[in-house]
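User: quick one, sequence for these C-alpha coordinates?
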Protein backbone atom coordinates (compact mmCIF):
# COMPACT_ATOMS: atom_id res chain seq x y z
CA UNK A 1 0.00 0.00 0.00
CA UNK A 2 1.51 3.29 -1.11
CA UNK A 3 0.20 5.29 1.85
CA UNK A 4 1.55 2.82 4.43
CA UNK A 5 3.06 4.74 7.33
CA UNK A 6 6.57 3.84 8.49
CA UNK A 7 7.32 3.59 12.21
CA UNK A 8 10.70 3.26 13.94
CA UNK A 9 10.61 1.95 17.53
CA UNK A 10 13.65 1.81 19.82
CA UNK A 11 13.81 -0.85 22.51
CA UNK A 12 11.44 -3.16 20.62
CA UNK A 13 12.82 -6.43 21.95
CA UNK A 14 10.45 -6.68 24.93
CA UNK A 15 7.86 -4.95 27.08
CA UNK A 16 6.13 -1.82 25.83
CA UNK A 17 8.32 -1.57 22.73
CA UNK A 18 7.54 -5.09 21.60
CA UNK A 19 3.82 -4.75 22.36
CA UNK A 20 3.75 -1.50 20.36
CA UNK A 21 5.53 -3.13 17.41
CA UNK A 22 3.02 -6.00 17.41
CA UNK A 23 0.02 -3.68 17.63
CA UNK A 24 1.14 -1.26 14.93
CA UNK A 25 2.04 -4.08 12.55
CA UNK A 26 -1.43 -5.56 13.02
CA UNK A 27 -2.90 -2.15 12.13
CA UNK A 28 -1.08 -1.99 8.79
CA UNK A 29 1.95 0.11 9.68
CA UNK A 30 5.39 -0.82 8.39
CA UNK A 31 7.39 -1.21 11.58
CA UNK A 32 11.13 -1.16 12.10
CA UNK A 33 12.08 -2.21 15.62
CA UNK A 34 15.53 -1.76 17.12
CA UNK A 35 17.56 -3.75 19.60
CA UNK A 36 21.21 -3.71 20.55
CA UNK A 37 21.51 -7.34 19.40
CA UNK A 38 18.57 -8.40 17.17
CA UNK A 39 20.00 -11.94 16.84
CA UNK A 40 19.04 -12.63 20.46
CA UNK A 41 15.47 -11.33 20.07
CA UNK A 42 12.49 -13.59 19.41
CA UNK A 43 11.19 -12.33 16.03
CA UNK A 44 7.94 -10.39 15.82
CA UNK A 45 5.97 -11.32 12.73
CA UNK A 46 5.97 -8.45 10.25
CA UNK A 47 8.47 -6.34 12.23
CA UNK A 48 11.87 -5.64 10.67
CA UNK A 49 14.46 -5.72 13.45
CA UNK A 50 17.52 -3.47 13.14
CA UNK A 51 20.66 -3.31 15.28
CA UNK A 52 20.80 0.03 17.07
CA UNK A 53 22.38 1.23 20.30
CA UNK A 54 20.95 4.60 21.34
CA UNK A 55 24.17 5.32 23.27
CA UNK A 56 26.27 5.31 20.11
CA UNK A 57 26.12 8.13 17.53
CA UNK A 58 27.30 5.94 14.66
CA UNK A 59 24.88 3.13 15.50
CA UNK A 60 21.96 5.56 15.66
CA UNK A 61 22.84 7.14 12.33
CA UNK A 62 23.30 3.76 10.63
CA UNK A 63 20.00 2.41 12.01
CA UNK A 64 18.00 5.45 10.94
CA UNK A 65 19.60 5.45 7.48
CA UNK A 66 18.73 1.76 7.06
CA UNK A 67 15.09 2.40 8.00
CA UNK A 68 14.94 5.34 5.58
CA UNK A 69 16.52 3.38 2.73
CA UNK A 70 14.14 0.45 3.18
CA UNK A 71 10.99 2.36 4.07
CA UNK A 72 11.57 5.52 2.05
CA UNK A 73 10.47 7.70 4.97
CA UNK A 74 9.90 7.69 8.74
CA UNK A 75 6.46 8.92 9.73
CA UNK A 76 6.64 8.02 13.42
CA UNK A 77 9.54 7.66 15.85
CA UNK A 78 8.77 5.92 19.14
CA UNK A 79 11.57 6.49 21.66
CA UNK A 80 11.11 3.60 24.04
CA UNK A 81 14.60 2.32 24.89
CA UNK A 82 15.52 2.89 28.51
CA UNK A 83 16.29 1.37 31.90
CA UNK A 84 16.25 2.24 35.59
CA UNK A 85 18.81 2.55 38.35
CA UNK A 86 17.38 1.72 41.78
CA UNK A 87 18.96 3.09 44.91
CA UNK A 88 19.09 6.08 47.19
CA UNK A 89 20.54 9.17 45.58
CA UNK A 90 23.40 9.09 48.09
CA UNK A 91 24.15 5.52 46.97
CA UNK A 92 24.20 6.36 43.27
CA UNK A 93 27.54 7.39 41.78
CA UNK A 94 27.91 10.14 39.17
CA UNK A 95 29.16 7.54 36.67
CA UNK A 96 26.00 5.44 37.16
CA UNK A 97 23.87 8.55 36.75
CA UNK A 98 25.75 9.59 33.60
CA UNK A 99 25.26 6.14 32.04
CA UNK A 100 21.53 6.31 32.82
CA UNK A 101 21.16 9.76 31.28
CA UNK A 102 23.16 8.62 28.25
CA UNK A 103 20.43 6.09 27.43
CA UNK A 104 17.23 7.68 28.73
CA UNK A 105 17.87 11.29 27.69
CA UNK A 106 20.83 11.57 25.33
CA UNK A 107 19.65 8.43 23.52
CA UNK A 108 16.40 10.23 22.75
CA UNK A 109 18.34 13.31 21.66
CA UNK A 110 20.44 11.21 19.27
CA UNK A 111 17.35 9.59 17.74
CA UNK A 112 15.53 12.90 17.37
CA UNK A 113 18.51 14.56 15.68
CA UNK A 114 18.82 11.60 13.30
CA UNK A 115 15.17 11.51 12.13
CA UNK A 116 14.29 15.22 12.08
CA UNK A 117 16.00 16.08 8.76
CA UNK A 118 13.87 13.48 6.95
CA UNK A 119 10.70 14.52 8.76
CA UNK A 120 11.33 18.17 7.92
CA UNK A 121 11.85 17.32 4.24
CA UNK A 122 8.59 15.39 4.08
CA UNK A 123 6.75 18.09 6.04
CA UNK A 124 5.22 15.73 8.60
CA UNK A 125 6.01 13.38 11.44
CA UNK A 126 5.20 12.28 14.97
CA UNK A 127 7.71 11.69 17.76
CA UNK A 128 6.36 9.66 20.68
CA UNK A 129 8.56 9.64 23.77
CA UNK A 130 7.88 6.99 26.42
CA UNK A 131 8.03 8.81 29.73
CA UNK A 132 6.48 7.69 33.02
CA UNK A 133 4.33 8.98 35.85
CA UNK A 134 7.76 9.54 37.42
CA UNK A 135 8.22 12.22 34.80
CA UNK A 136 5.95 14.45 36.88
CA UNK A 137 6.13 12.81 40.33
CA UNK A 138 9.02 12.02 42.67
CA UNK A 139 9.90 8.45 43.56
CA UNK A 140 12.04 7.43 46.53
CA UNK A 141 14.98 5.22 45.60
CA UNK A 142 14.38 5.91 41.91
CA UNK A 143 15.48 9.52 42.02
CA UNK A 144 17.92 9.34 39.11
CA UNK A 145 15.43 7.48 36.90
CA UNK A 146 12.76 10.06 37.79
CA UNK A 147 15.27 12.78 36.94
CA UNK A 148 15.77 11.34 33.44
CA UNK A 149 12.03 11.30 32.87
CA UNK A 150 11.61 14.85 34.18
CA UNK A 151 14.37 15.87 31.73
CA UNK A 152 12.64 13.99 28.91
CA UNK A 153 9.39 15.84 29.58
CA UNK A 154 11.11 19.22 29.40
CA UNK A 155 12.96 18.25 26.23
CA UNK A 156 9.77 16.99 24.60
CA UNK A 157 7.70 20.06 25.38
CA UNK A 158 10.41 22.40 24.09
CA UNK A 159 10.93 20.27 20.98
CA UNK A 160 7.22 20.33 20.15
CA UNK A 161 7.31 24.13 19.98
CA UNK A 162 10.39 24.05 17.75
CA UNK A 163 9.17 21.55 15.14
CA UNK A 164 5.44 22.28 14.99
CA UNK A 165 5.92 24.66 12.07
CA UNK A 166 7.35 21.79 10.01
CA UNK A 167 4.25 19.64 10.47
CA UNK A 168 5.87 17.56 13.23
CA UNK A 169 4.38 16.97 16.68
CA UNK A 170 5.81 15.48 19.86
CA UNK A 171 3.85 13.41 22.39
CA UNK A 172 4.68 12.07 25.85
CA UNK A 173 3.16 8.73 26.84
CA UNK A 174 3.26 8.29 30.62
CA UNK A 175 2.75 4.72 31.90
CA UNK A 176 2.35 3.93 35.56
CA UNK A 177 3.15 0.55 37.11
CA UNK A 178 3.28 -1.90 34.19
CA UNK A 179 3.71 -5.69 34.13
CA UNK A 180 6.97 -5.99 32.18
CA UNK A 181 10.53 -7.13 32.84
CA UNK A 182 11.49 -3.47 33.32
CA UNK A 183 11.75 -3.81 37.09
CA UNK A 184 13.62 -7.10 36.90
CA UNK A 185 16.07 -5.53 34.45
CA UNK A 186 16.67 -2.48 36.64
CA UNK A 187 20.24 -1.94 37.80
CA UNK A 188 20.85 -1.49 41.51
CA UNK A 189 23.30 1.14 42.62
CA UNK A 190 26.66 -0.49 43.33
CA UNK A 191 27.11 1.22 46.68
CA UNK A 192 24.81 0.32 49.55
CA UNK A 193 24.44 2.35 52.73
CA UNK A 194 23.04 0.46 55.71
CA UNK A 195 21.09 3.47 56.98
CA UNK A 196 18.74 3.20 53.98
CA UNK A 197 18.22 -0.59 54.10
CA UNK A 198 14.88 -0.60 55.93
CA UNK A 199 13.11 2.04 53.88
CA UNK A 200 14.63 0.71 50.66
CA UNK A 201 13.13 -2.72 51.37
CA UNK A 202 9.71 -1.17 52.10
CA UNK A 203 9.76 0.74 48.82
CA UNK A 204 10.89 -2.32 46.84
CA UNK A 205 8.04 -4.40 48.30
CA UNK A 206 5.52 -1.67 47.47
CA UNK A 207 6.79 -1.42 43.88
CA UNK A 208 6.62 -5.21 43.40
CA UNK A 209 3.03 -5.29 44.70
CA UNK A 210 1.97 -2.36 42.51
CA UNK A 211 3.65 -3.82 39.43
CA UNK A 212 1.94 -7.18 39.90
CA UNK A 213 -1.40 -5.37 40.01
CA UNK A 214 -0.53 -3.12 37.06
CA UNK A 215 -1.73 -3.32 33.48
CA UNK A 216 0.19 -5.15 30.78
CA UNK A 217 2.36 -3.44 28.16
CA UNK A 218 -0.51 -3.72 25.69
CA UNK A 219 -2.26 -0.85 27.52
CA UNK A 220 0.69 1.47 26.92
CA UNK A 221 0.91 0.27 23.31
CA UNK A 222 -2.74 1.18 22.79
CA UNK A 223 -2.05 4.68 24.12
CA UNK A 224 0.87 5.03 21.72
CA UNK A 225 -1.47 4.10 18.88
CA UNK A 226 -3.86 6.83 20.07
CA UNK A 227 -0.95 9.29 20.16
CA UNK A 228 -0.27 8.50 16.50
CA UNK A 229 -3.82 8.41 15.17
CA UNK A 230 -5.83 10.85 17.27
CA UNK A 231 -5.69 14.60 17.69
CA UNK A 232 -2.56 15.90 19.37
CA UNK A 233 -2.29 15.89 23.13
CA UNK A 234 1.10 16.62 24.66
CA UNK A 235 0.79 14.26 27.62
CA UNK A 236 -0.98 10.90 27.58
CA UNK A 237 -1.03 9.17 30.98
CA UNK A 238 -1.68 5.45 30.51
CA UNK A 239 -4.73 4.04 32.29
CA UNK A 240 -7.13 5.37 34.89
CA UNK A 241 -4.69 5.49 37.80
CA UNK A 242 -2.02 7.40 35.87
CA UNK A 243 -4.65 9.82 34.57
CA UNK A 244 -5.91 10.39 38.11
CA UNK A 245 -2.39 10.92 39.46
CA UNK A 246 -1.67 13.40 36.66
CA UNK A 247 -4.74 15.46 37.57
CA UNK A 248 -4.00 15.32 41.28
CA UNK A 249 -0.43 16.47 40.68
CA UNK A 250 -1.69 19.53 38.79
CA UNK A 251 -4.56 20.53 41.05
CA UNK A 252 -3.96 19.20 44.58
CA UNK A 253 -1.95 21.17 47.16
CA UNK A 254 1.62 19.99 47.67
CA UNK A 255 1.13 18.52 51.16
CA UNK A 256 -1.56 15.95 50.22
CA UNK A 257 0.46 14.95 47.15
CA UNK A 258 3.51 14.42 49.36
CA UNK A 259 1.52 12.21 51.77
CA UNK A 260 0.05 10.25 48.88
CA UNK A 261 3.48 9.54 47.38
CA UNK A 262 4.80 8.31 50.73
CA UNK A 263 1.77 6.08 51.19
CA UNK A 264 2.04 4.55 47.71
CA UNK A 265 5.70 3.69 48.30
CA UNK A 266 5.14 2.22 51.75
CA UNK A 267 6.79 4.99 53.75
CA UNK A 268 3.76 5.66 56.01
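Assistant:
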Amino acid sequence: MTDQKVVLITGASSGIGRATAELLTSRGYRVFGTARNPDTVVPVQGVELLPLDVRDDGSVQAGVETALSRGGRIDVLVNNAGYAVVGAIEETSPSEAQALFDTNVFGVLRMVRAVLPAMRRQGSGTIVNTSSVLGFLPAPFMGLYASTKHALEGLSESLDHEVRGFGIRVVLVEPGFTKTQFGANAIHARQTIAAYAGTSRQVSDAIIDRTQDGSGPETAAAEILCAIERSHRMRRPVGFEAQLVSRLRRFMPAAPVDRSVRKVFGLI
